[in-house]
Structure formats: structure tokens, C-alpha cells
């Protein structure tokens, strides 16, 4: 018999980044008992890495902005396969969610008349991102954390969930271990909210921390939920490329929002050469106009550096492949040049981009106020995730909700920068609200001791194995393989290789052995994370194979064009009765006339 | 490529020993990279906390050659590698395993500090107006990544172990951020003196020196809070006013 402690809550939230914290706060405010589980210490989740800001059409800087413009920007950025209802709710509710943060103690940068300042970002027509220098994510997580600790939420830190527990069709809790001593925990809940973030650790070059192993995606999938849009991975155009140990670490889009430009090794500002047709009207004609836009000239259009992330990443990729890259395989991102335009440029850069200045100074010995940075694409975000109801964030499995990066729909084929932090608070709140409602309407289910026994046995198995397979090496091999075969530019042949390689990696993972004891053992933790990484990698590869076109974050050199046919459905992945991953097409419902009209009006 | 030796504290809560590991050093590496490399090569059960690897989350705090630092922001080319580099857990907190300590005390302390309580909104739409110049100071404090290195280096906690009487620099900064927030209407001065032990800080500024976010903890946060305590409790004029008010 496995030993474990049992905890009971009305709602369990898994993940304590922006979405999880916001969900926990909302559920708790609704009067139910809430348990919040996080893999790290509270306040360390990947949300702290978010830099640029949160998009909300408050119109503080440009009063032409409103929810309609934000909605149409989001749909355009997502190439119209977004869940339009989510995009609508997001655009309408984000301003209130941001103001609410201020009421909870957040201290955003200000406009001259004392309102929340908003900055420019890729794909957003007007300055829309509420921000705090370039550490907006920290401000968000700390505000929610400091508010949440007074709400009576029970926080379980450094606890990792291994599986969801079911009673019939319904999710009734989860099975977990605490990292400190490896002891098992059973959490019984009437409703479970997944807010586990992304899958970046499936790739070699990523801006994600060790936590981004697709836990929520995999937990939901194995509990019978559907995953959609898994082929859409966002490669952020600007990650650090040198030195090797920092490769992939994010360089905020805010650098470009403040006037930073991209140049190749020939000194050419290459982004002006390739502007997609559907953005031509909104893009600056020349560098002068682009500069004026970044400085708040309302008559100017944005510079091409602020086109959507998928496009900018591919342009950088093209420059490097064509031999016009920087010495370490990136291109140049230059903010220092603004000294030609501003008298106190160095001070201005340090004030606007303090953590970027700090990051390059300390990690790369480079002063961004005098020298261009070397940057290249890095795996940043997955648009795909758990299929949820637009209004309630309920998954297709009763009792299971999801919010934030691990849920899908709002972003379609490509996410606009700044739409993630706002997504977290808009849909985190909704998930918490409806999970609490579900909990009030339902009683606790019964957890199966058989399932717990099986899960515990599988979790402990690596300690009993005698093999040379080491979890760190398998994870590295998986990352290399995914980077090479299912990366920024994809084709049928490489992805077939990926599917075959994934089977081999699964076999190796099943033989993986762990040394040492069960107390805080990173080797063991990594071994258990492998299952999730392999599940999401398979979903990504299968969906990417099926989408025989190029759209947003998914680019295929064998099908380089966008095909109308593929614009009418999302790919969904679900486990069949034999445990195999099945792919199907889910039609996108017809957009209501009033939303169609919004898109037409906004052009 | 050159190899370097790292002496890393191994062991659980009962006690530990320093174990030597040798690993290859490449350009640009930080201490955390070395620890990860050692994990992958020869010590997969070597425990350390980390998340962002970019100095933004404050998870990988440790003592490197005796100095409290973030492992992810400490480049190996700033350290003398001709001798073994020691990596130890923070000493102000109970060890759990290897480089990991039990920092839960910090989370409990924070809960005791009264939460933010804003004044009534300034505008009919429920929003407030603040000038940037009025929030610069608070924003400095809010840069804190809660790495707890300031707590680690503070002699009141580290050497005198007065965790039950003194909240430490991190939470004085936290209290300062609330007290100096232009919208906040709560008063925490009484607790600062009587429960949080602000008087124990004797301004040696060790916390300011180790702060990876370069927050001027002592000058900008602690000293102004001490002044508020003095104004409220020791100013004879204020005392008179108080007595009259009570009547």
C-alpha cells in the first residue's frame, strides 16, 4: 500500500503563475475553499519573466483605442482561427482586470496626466500595453501573490502533480508528490483548474524555465480532454544567442517598441524588405515614419520590426540562413542608435529597459546603450492547449477547467505580445469563477485507490531500475530532436522523422533509472517530467504534420502558403481507448454578424 | 577546454559535507551552468532551486566562495578558478538538502504585514491619478525578486537568529513599498516598532551590498521607516498632539 496524505478542497488550482493565482483569488472570493499547488516556491513561476506589458484597450495614451480595435488586432494576429468569443471577451474585459490590479497595489508606469502608461507592441495598432519598465510580469505576479495570501488560499509549494484523479467521467482531484521528501499527496476537489503554463522545455533553445514541461497539457490529455492548435508554437524573434549558456533567454519586444531596429551583418535594416500584404497599410513607409511611431506620433504607422512575432522570427531565420547573420548565428538588435535622435539616449534606455541593460551587462559583457545586441529566435509560447469553453474555461471533461498558456483558443495561429498577461487575468478570473460555481453545484467524488496505487508504482519505478538511461540525457536528446525537426521551418520528411524518434525516446524514457534517494532529487523529478514532454511533443508533431499549409507560428517549406480550406477548423488531439493519440478537425463556429462587422470596420 | 573544481555542500537537514566536482568551463558560463553540468554528468540527485536563469525570479540564491549571490548571474570569468569554488546554501535558513534551504519563514512573515489598502478612487470611473515622480521610489522597492539574499546576509538573522523578533531587510523593503505607496491608507508604524523589530537594524548596509536588483535597501527603505517610527513614538511635539487628540 502506498502511503499518502489526503487534502480536501472545493477547488484545486494547479499552477501559481498569473492565471493560477488569479483563478485562486476569484474562487476564494466566491466563498469556496481553495488549494493552490505550485512546482516552485510561490512567486517564482514563469510569469515573472514576462517583460513588455499587458494589453488592454484603455485608451490612456491614444484615445482612438477601444475593445473593437483590440479584438480585430488579436484576430488578425491569430490569422482568424482564434476562438472569436474568447478574443471578444479578452478585449472587452482586459481593461477592468488591469485597473483591478491597481486597486490591489500594482504600480504601473504613468502618463503625464497620472494615468496608467501604455506602450507600443507588435501587432497592436495603438499603444496598448500597461507596463512597469520591462518587468511587468514580476509586478503582476507579486501583486496577485500579495493580494492572494490574505484571501485564505492554502498554498502547497514545491508540489508536483503526477496525474488527475477521476470518478467516472469527472475529474475529482489529483495525485502529487512534494519535492522536498518525495512524499505522495492526494488532493480531493470538486473542481480542478489547470494553469500550468507552457511546453518550452521540449525545445533546445527556449526562453522557458525548467517548469515549462507541458504538465497541464499532458494531465488533461491523459484525463480524456482535448488539445487543440498544438502545431502553433511561438518562436519569439529576439532571444539572446551569446554566450552559449544564455542562449534563448528573452530580449523583450519592448526594445523594438522603444525604437530598437533589426539589422543584418551587412548593416541593412532587412525588415523593410518583407512586409505581408495584410499589414502593408499599417506599416511605416520608411525609417523616419517608424521612429515617429515609436515616439508617439499618432499620424505615423509602426515600423516593420513591430510586425507579428511569427513573421519577424522567420525573417531573422532567413537572414541567418542566407549568410547575413551575426558571428554567433543571430542578427543585430540595435537600440543604441537612438542617440542620433535623443540627447540623453543612454539614460533613457536604462530607464525604459532596465532589466535588459542589466541582463546584457551582466551575462554578456555588453552595454546595450552603446552596442547592438545579437539576437535570434527562441521557443517562447505555445498557442495550442486544452480546448475550453470560451466563457467558463471548462474543458471537455467535467470538473476540469484550464486558463492561461495551457488553455487554447484566444490566440489562434499566433499570439500578439502583451496578450498573454491580459489573457492570464481575464481567463484566470473566469476559470476561478466557474470552477467555484461547479464546486458549489457538485459534491466530492470518490478517488480510486487502484488508480493511486498504479500511479505511485509508476512514479517510483525509476528507483528500482538498473540502466544507463539518465533523465537529463533523454531530455536533452528530445530537445535537440524537436528543435531540429519540428522547429521554425518545418517539412513532411523531418516531421515523420520526429514521430519515429518520439517512439524511440518513449521507449528510452520507460527504462530511465534514477540514483540517490527520494529527497529533493532533480534526476527523479526530471524523469517524471519526461512523460509530459513526450506527450506534448507528439501532439505538436502530429498536428504540424496534418496542417499542410503555413499560418502564424506554423511554417512549412513544403506548403509555404496559407490555404483557405485550413482556415475553417482547428486540429484537435484526443486519446482513444487504446491509448493512441487521435487527430480530428473541429469546425470553427460562424462568427456573429456584429463581430464580422467590427473586423470589417477596423480594416 | 579548461576544467574547474567546485566544492559543493552535499547532505540533508542533519548535516553535510563539501564534495569536490570537476567540470569543464566554457565561455560565458555562470555558476548555475556548472551546477547543472555536474548534475547531468555525475550527480543527478544534486538539489538546487532555479527557474528563470536570468536574474528575474530569485530562486537560485546561494553562497559562492562565502558571498551571497544568485548562481545564475555569477559568471565564472569573474571568479578565480585556479582554486576550488565553494558553493553553499544560504546560512540564515535551515538546510533541507544540498543547496536548498527552508525559506518558508519568509512567506509567513509577509502574511503578518497588513495588506495594501487604497484610498477612494480619484476619478468617477474608479481609477486613480499618480505622478511618475511620486512612484519612482515605490517602484524601486517593487523590483525585489524575493531571492532573500538580504535576509541571508543580515547579521540579526544570520548570526543572532532573531527570526522571531525581526522581519529582516526584505520585509522592511516590502513594508516601505506599502507605506510609501501614494494610494495606501494603512498605518504599519506601530508594528514596525513593536513586532517587526526595525530597531534591531543598525544600518551596516550589508543587505544593500548583496541586493542583485541594486535596491538601496538601507538608505531608501529602512532609514525612512526608522524616521517614521521616531516621529510617531519619540517626537515630543507629536506626543503632545496625541495626548490632546485622545482627550
Number of strands of chain B: 7
Described by its quaternary structure, the protein is heterodimer
> Which two chains have the most extensive interface, and how many residues on each?
A-B, 67 and 56 residues
**CATH structural architecture of the domain at 237-378 in chain A:** Alpha-Beta Complex
Biggest sheet of chain B, in brief?
Answer: 5 strands, mixed
Separation of termini of chain A? 64 Å
The number of distinct helices of chain A, counting runs of at least 4 residues, comes to 16
- SSE sequence of chain B, one letter per element: EEHEEEEEHHHHHHHHH
Estimate nothing, just give the exact number of structural domains of chain B. 2
Supply the CATH superfamily name of the domain at 237-378 in chain A: Succinate dehydrogenase/fumarate reductase flavoprotein, catalytic domain
Beta fraction of the residues of chain A? 15-25%
CATH topology call of the domain at 237-378 in chain A: Flavocytochrome C3, Chain A, domain 1
Write a concise synopsis of the structure shown:
The complex is a heterodimer of chains A (603) and B (247). Chain A is an alpha/beta fold and 603 residues long.
Characterise the protein shown here.
Chain A has 603 residues and is of the alpha/beta class. Among the domains of chain A are: 237-378, Alpha-Beta Complex (Flavocytochrome C3, Chain A, domain 1); 449-570, Methane Monooxygenase Hydroxylase, Chain G, domain 1 (Up-down Bundle), CATH 1.20.58.100. In chain A, 36% of the residues lie in helices and 18% in strands. Chain A contains 16 helices and 21 strands. In chain A, the strands form 5 sheets. In chain A, strands 1, 2, 6, 7, 8, 9 and 16 form a 7-stranded mixed sheet that branches. In chain A, strands 17-15-10-20-21 form a 5-stranded mixed sheet, with helices on one face. Chain A has a 4-stranded antiparallel sheet with strand order 11-14-13-12, with helices on one face. The longest helix of chain A is centred in the C-terminal third of the chain and has 25 residues, at 522-546. The radius of gyration of chain A is 23 Å and the shape is globular. Chain A starts with a strand and ends with a helix. Chain B has 247 residues and is α+β, with helices and mostly antiparallel strands. Chain B has 2 domains: 3-101, Roll (Ubiquitin-like (UB roll)); 104-246, Orthogonal Bundle (Fumarate Reductase Iron-sulfur Protein, Chain B, domain 2), CATH 1.10.1060. Helices cover 36% and strands 14% of the residues of chain B. Chain B has helices spanning 31-41, 104-112, 132-141, 149-153, 155-158, 168-179, 189-194, 206-210, 217-233, 236-246, and strands spanning 3-11, 16-24, 61-64, 67-70, 85-88, 95-97, 100-101. A 5-stranded mixed sheet of chain B has the order 2-1-5-3-4. In chain B, strands 6-7 form a two-stranded antiparallel ribbon. In chain B, a hairpin with a 2-residue loop joins strand 6 (95-97) and strand 7 (100-101). The longest helix of chain B has 17 residues, at 217-233. Chain B is elongated. The model of chain B has no long low-confidence stretch (mean pLDDT 95). Chains A and B meet through helix 3, helix 4, helix 10, helix 13 and helix 15 of A and helix 1, helix 2 and helix 3 of B.
Amino acid at each position: 500500500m502506498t502511503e499518502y496524505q489526503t487534502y480536501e478542497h472545493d477547488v484545486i488550482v494547479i499552477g501559481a503563475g498569473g492565471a493560477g493565482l488569479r483563478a485562486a483569488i476569484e474562487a476564494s472570493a466566491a466563498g469556496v475553499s481553495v488549494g493552490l499547488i505550485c512546482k516552485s516556491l510561490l512567486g517564482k513561476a514563469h510569469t515573472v519573466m514576462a517583460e513588455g506589458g499587458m494589453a488592454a484597450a484603455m485608451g490612456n495614451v491614444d484615445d482612438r483605442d477601444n475593445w473593437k480595435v483590440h479584438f480585430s488586432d488579436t484576430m488578425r494576429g491569430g490569422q482568424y482561427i482564434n476562438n472569436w468569443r474568447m478574443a471578444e471577451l479578452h478585449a472587452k474585459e482586459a481593461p477592468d482586470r488591469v485597473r483591478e490590479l491597481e486597486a490591489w497595489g500594482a504600480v504601473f508606469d504613468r502618463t503625464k496626466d497620472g494615468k496608467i502608461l501604455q506602450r507600443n507592441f507588435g501587432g497592436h495598432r495603438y499603444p496598448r500595453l500597461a507596463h512597469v519598465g520591462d518587468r511587468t510580469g514580476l509586478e503582476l505576479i507579486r501583486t496577485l501573490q500579495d493580494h492572494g495570501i490574505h484571501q485564505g488560499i492554502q498554498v502547497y509549494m514545491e508540489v508536483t502533480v503526477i496525474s488527475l484523479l477521476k470518478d467516472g467521467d469527472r475529474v475529482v482531484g489529483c495525485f502529487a508528490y512534494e519535492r522536498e521528501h518525495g512524499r505522495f499527496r492526494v488532493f480531493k476537489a470538486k473542481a480542478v483548474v489547470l494553469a500550468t503554463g507552457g511546453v518550452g522545455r521540449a525545445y533546445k533553445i527556449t526562453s522557458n524555465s525548467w517548469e515549462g514541461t507541458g504538465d497541464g497539457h499532458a494531465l488533461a490529455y491523459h484525463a480524456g480532454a482535448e488539445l487543440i492548435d498544438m502545431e502553433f508554437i511561438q518562436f519569439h524573434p529576439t532571444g539572446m544567442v551569446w554566450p552559449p549558456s544564455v542562449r534563448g533567454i528573452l530580449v523583450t519586444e519592448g526594445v523594438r517598441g522603444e525604437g530598437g531596429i533589426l539589422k543584418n551583418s551587412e548593416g541593412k535594416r532587412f525588415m523593410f524588405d518583407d512586409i505581408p500584404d495584410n499589414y502593408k497599410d499599417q506599416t511605416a513607409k520608411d525609417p523616419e515614419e517608424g521612429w515617429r511611431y515609436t515616439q508617439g506620433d499618432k499620424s505615423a504607422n509602426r515600423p516593420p520590426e513591430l510586425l507579428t512575432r511569427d513573421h519577424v522570427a522567420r525573417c531573422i531565420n532567413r537572414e541567418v540562413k542566407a549568410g547575413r547573420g551575426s558571428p554567433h548565428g543571430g542578427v543585430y538588435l540595435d537600440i543604441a542608435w537612438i542617440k542620433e535622435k535623443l540627447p540623453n539616449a543612454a539614460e533613457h534606455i536604462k530607464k525604459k529597459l532596465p532589466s535588459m541593460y542589466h541582463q546584457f551587462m551582466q551575462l554578456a559583457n555588453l552595454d546595450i546603450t552603446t552596442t547592438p545586441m545579437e539576437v535570434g529566435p527562441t521557443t517562447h509560447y505555445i498557442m495550442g492547449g486544452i480546448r475550453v469553453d470560451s466563457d467558463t474555461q471548462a474543458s471537455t471533461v467535467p470538473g476540469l477547467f484550464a486558463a492561461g498558456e495551457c488553455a487554447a483558443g484566444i490566440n489562434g495561429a499566433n499570439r500578439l505580445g502583451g496578450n498573454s498577461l491580459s489573457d492570464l487575468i481575464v481567463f484566470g478570473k473566469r476559470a476561478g469563477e466557474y470552477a467555484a460555481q461547479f464546486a458549489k453545484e457538485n459534491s466530492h467524488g470518490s478517488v480510486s485507490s487502484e488508480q493511486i496505487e498504479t500511479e505511485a508504482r509508476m512514479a517510483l519505478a525509476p528507483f528500482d531500475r538498473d540502466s544507463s538511461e539518465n533523465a537529463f540525457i533523454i531530455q536533452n536528446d528530445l530537445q535537440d530532436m524537436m528543435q531540429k525537426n519540428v522547429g521554425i521551418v518545418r517539412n513532411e520528411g523531418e516531421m515523420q522523422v520526429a514521430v519515429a524518434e518520439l517512439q524511440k525516446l518513449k521507449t528510452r524514457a520507460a527504462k530511465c533509472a534514477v540514483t540517490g534517494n527520494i529527497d529533493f532529487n532533480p534526476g527523479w523529478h526530471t524523469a517524471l517530467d519526461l512523460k509530459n514532454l513526450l506527450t506534448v511533443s507528439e501532439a505538436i508533431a502530429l498536428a504540424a504534420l496534418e496542417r499542410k499549409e503555413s499560418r502564424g507560428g506554423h511554417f512549412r517549406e513544403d506548403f509555404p502558403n496559407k490555404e483557405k480550406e485550413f482556415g475553417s477548423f482547428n486540429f484537435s488531439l484526443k486519446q482513444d481507448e487504446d491509448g493512441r493519440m487521435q487527430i480530428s478537425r473541429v469546425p470553427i463556429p460562424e462568427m456573429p454578424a456584429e463581430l464580422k462587422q467590427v473586423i470589417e470596420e477596423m480594416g | 577546454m579548461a576544467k574547474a573544481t567546485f566544492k559543493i555542500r552535499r547532505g540533508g537537514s542533519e548535516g553535510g559535507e563539501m564534495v569536490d566536482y570537476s567540470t569543464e568551463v566554457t565561455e560565458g558560463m555562470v555558476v548555475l551552468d556548472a551546477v547543472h553540468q555536474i548534475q547531468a554528468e555525475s550527480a543527478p540527485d544534486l538539489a538546487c532551486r532555479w527557474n528563470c536563469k536570468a536574474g528575474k525570479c530569485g530562486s537560485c540564491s546561494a553562497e559562492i566562495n562565502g558571498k551571497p549571490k544568485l548562481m545564475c548571474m555569477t559568471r565564472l570569468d569573474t571568479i578565480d578558478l585556479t582554486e576550488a569554488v565553494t558553493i553553499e546554501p544560504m546560512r540564515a535558513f535551515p538546510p533541507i538538502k544540498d543547496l536548498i534551504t527552508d525559506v518558508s519563514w519568509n512567506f509567513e512573515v509577509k502574511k503578518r504585514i497588513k495588506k495594501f489598502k487604497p484610498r477612494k478612487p480619484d476619478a468617477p470611473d474608479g481609477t486613480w491619478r499618480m505622478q511618475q515622480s511620486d512612484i519612482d521610489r515605490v517602484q524601486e522597492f517593487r523590483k525585489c525578486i524575493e531571492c532573500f539574499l538580504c535576509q541571508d546576509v543580515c547579521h540579526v538573522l544570520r548570526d543572532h537568529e532573531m527570526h522571531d523578533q525581526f522581519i529582516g531587510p526584505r520585509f522592511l523593503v516590502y513594508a516601505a513599498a506599502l507605506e510609501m505607496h501614494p494610494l495606501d491608507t494603512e498605518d504599519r508604524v506601530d508594528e514596525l516598532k513593536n513586532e517587526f523589530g526595525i530597531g534591531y537594524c543598525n544600518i551596516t548596509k550589508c543587505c544593500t551590498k548583496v541586493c542583485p536588483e541594486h535596491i538601496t535597501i538601507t538608505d531608501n527603505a529602512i532609514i525612512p521607516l526608522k524616521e517614521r517610527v521616531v516621529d510617531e513614538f519619540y517626537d515630543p511635539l507629536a506626543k503632545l498632539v496625541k495626548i490632546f487628540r485622545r482627550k
